[in-house]
Design brief:
It contains ten helices and no strands. By secondary structure, the chain is mainly alpha-helical. The radius of gyration is 17 Å and the shape is globular. 35% of the residues are buried.
Length: 188
């Protein structure tokens, strides 16, 4: 059973086209991604998803590449193929010194991936939050502070983790197919 309908640009209402246009302008992409097209039927819903995405990923104090890696880590924990592939693609575009294999193994204890120590702490925190948010201890929050994250940055990190969880549920529930550029990354 197909669980979604895609609304291409030509068939979208003006409110949806506004969101598509802003995404295309900010991302430099040639077309909106599948996740966005799947929301295109409802201008209110797509606007809400886009504003949360833009606010959590494209704005704020944390480095964009760290945010993309965070979504990747959370998505891998949740088995969310679409989000894992999408955010691996984004992270690799932001840091071409990394490989897909680097991202997959980034939290392995023996990982040699060159990463600022604070980023490793943030990604370990994201992994723990995705596995058991209620089990995260004060010590794990303190580790973020000790790694140099301000209170504002910690809340931003939590917002990125929340964004990932929301999209993991949405894209996995609908079983959205991978965009061609994401599929090539995973299949490569």
């Amino acid at each position: 059973m197909k669980r979604y309908t895609l609304t291409p640009y030509e068939q979208a209402c003006p409110g949806t086209r506004e969101v598509y246009d802003e995404f295309l302008r900010l991302s430099g992409a040639a077309e909106p991604p599948v996740w966005m097209l799947s929301l295109g039927h409802n201008p209110t819903l797509i606007k809400a998803y886009w504003e949360k995405t833009r606010g959590c990923l494209l704005e704020g104090e944390l480095p964009h590449v760290l945010k993309e890696m965070t979504v990747f880590v959370v998505s891998r924990v949740n088995g969310a193929e679409y989000c894992s592939a999408c955010h691996a693609h984004s992270a690799l575009q932001l840091d071409p010194t990394l490989s897909y294999h680097d991202l997959v193994t980034i939290l392995d204890p023996d990982s040699a991936v060159p990463l600022p120590p604070s980023h490793r702490v943030a990604l370990q925190f994201a992994d723990k939050m995705a596995r058991d948010a209620n089990g995260v201890s004060d010590a794990e929050f303190q580790a973020l502070a000790d790694a140099g994250f301000s209170d504002s940055e910690v809340k931003e990190l939590l917002s990125v983790i929340d964004l990932a969880m929301m999209f993991n549920c949405y894209t996995s529930g609908l079983r959205l197919p991978l965009d061609p550029q994401y599929k090539a990354l995973v299949d490569g």
